[in-house]
């Protein structure tokens, strides 16, 4: 089934697929691949035509995906996520290997034993005694911390959990944890409401765009036209993720001062309680 999906993805996204490419990607013989193509053409007889000159299969004008149609946004996300994989592994995953690169985050100096300890605690539901250097205290402090999730902001890796020092759920930077030792939680922790509950962000276009600019910006950000003829899109991130979404999309009201941010958040006042303190003056 993976090879059949590869055949369909390759022919859909690149316009061609050959037996040798499938055989090389999956380390199987040409005879195996010939059987795969025969099976695919039995399942979807109108999808492929054979190009004798180029010795490859191409999509016909009547091509219709046999498997579930894949959203372009999902494919692009897979392409971005697979950028660090070897070419053969990318081919198996995607069905094609386009040249691509992504903006790299700065490498964080996180020790493997520390990351192992944190991941094991999350998996087992246990707690940690950590030594943490925050940016609000001059010296590192010892604290009880019960982690339950990892967060990647696009720039930094954080770990979310119950912070005994503040008696609340907090996000701590992994790179600022100097040491961690496992321990039993020893207490029943409250539900992390902001992790499990979501809040709606209503995003629309700023004023002053031309009709053409409105159309392309709406398409770029996945907006649809509303009954009042405006463009908008609604997303529902975890409440705990809202500060990072606002950072990434520059959606705070102050972000529009003197900057060409083409989108705005309609309902900042309703989600402001989930933003980090002091984010807006």
Provide the descriptors you would attach to this structure in a database record:
globular, five-stranded antiparallel β-sheet, alpha+beta, 10 helices
Describe the overall structure:
The structure is a single chain. The protein has 281 residues and is α+β, with helices and mostly antiparallel strands. Helix 1 crosses helix 5 and helix 2 (19-26) packs across helix 3 (30-43). The protein is 33% helix and 22% strand. The protein has helices at residues 2-14, 19-26, 30-43, 72-81, 87-94, 112-124, 193-196, 211-220, 242-249, 268-271, and strands at residues 48-51, 56-59, 127-132, 141-152, 157-163, 168-173, 177-183, 201-205, 224-225, 231-235, 263-265. 20% of the residues are buried. The protein is globular and about 70 Å long. The protein contains 10 helices and 11 strands. A 5-stranded antiparallel sheet has the order 6-5-4-3-7.
SSE arrangement:
Layout: H1 2-14, H2 19-26, H3 30-43, E1 48-51, E2 56-59, H4 72-81, H5 87-94, H6 112-124, E3 127-132, E4 141-152, E5 157-163, E6 168-173, E7 177-183, H7 193-196, E8 201-205, H8 211-220, E9 224-225, E10 231-235, H9 242-249, E11 263-265, H10 268-271
Antiparallel strand pairs: 1-2, 3-4, 3-7, 4-5, 5-6, 8-10, 8-11, 9-10
